[in-house]
Amino acid sequence: MKLVSLRLEEELIEKIDEVARKTLQSRSEIIRSSIALYLSLLENIGFYFKPSLPMKNVDVYEERNAVNVDLGNLTSVSVLSVSYGGVGELELDFRRDLGFVAEVMANQVAVETHCRFITPLLVMLTSTCDFLYTHNFFRMFSEALRERMKVRTMLSGYEEFFETKQSGFVATVVGLRDMSTRNSPRRGDRIYFFGNAVSGAELSEEELLDMADVERLVGLVKEGKASAIFPVKSGGLQEVADYAAALAGGKAMLFEKRGGCPATAIVLTSAEDLSGYGCELVGEIL
């Protein structure tokens, strides 16, 4: 063994000596065992957490409908929320089959999770509706989500505080985000559209994004062929293009306006030609 010298605070030395007395070991044995244990923890769970170390200057930041807590080691805990209201089978709803609503919501959750490079750990569903209606939706939503990604689902609550006679659901994703992949649009990037520019009453199940396509396009960002990928929100192509351009410190110039929603369309930015991947050129970041 090599001789290593180190400086320790007096309080820590007292704790080491106390443990040494109780276990009938030397101070050196306690220090060696502690270091070995700490290294073992780092190898097994340290990629996600830093055991025994106080977390100083934890970075918490918002990203549209998500909050990320940076833990270091290129990983952050991400909490992502998707809410649907006023569409379903209740009296004052915009009438759509509840199974269809579950499919659309599951697709949006999966698309947004993939486009944020999140490995999901749990998806929690909260409802503003009654017990039977909520459980029926939860069953269909869970089945639809499991067809799109491997994740545990949980019904976290249902509270019908007021008789609104309208459906209301919130899905919250908790997962680990891979920070080694940069999702950063750049000035000079071209803006590409993939999917269907439909939402609301016009939406049909056939127009939902296929997860195989989403995973393939997310892979372009991981491989460096695209700079960034974002789901289209309710504001359509213009909103997401402006968001991407703001991140790049530029301005979006679009050739046309399009609608869409996170379940049906995504936008990529890249300095390369992505038309060979089924993407349509719709603008650029100046």
From TrEMBL:
<dbReference type="Pfam" id="PF01402">
    <property type="entry name" value="RHH_1"/>
</dbReference>
<dbReference type="GO" id="GO:0006355">
    <property type="term" value="P:regulation of DNA-templated transcription"/>
</dbReference>
<protein>
    <submittedName>
        <fullName>Ribbon-helix-helix protein, copG family</fullName>
    </submittedName>
</protein>
<feature type="domain" description="Ribbon-helix-helix protein CopG">
    <location>
        <begin position="2"/>
        <end position="39"/>
    </location>
</feature>
<dbReference type="InterPro" id="IPR002145">
    <property type="entry name" value="CopG"/>
</dbReference>
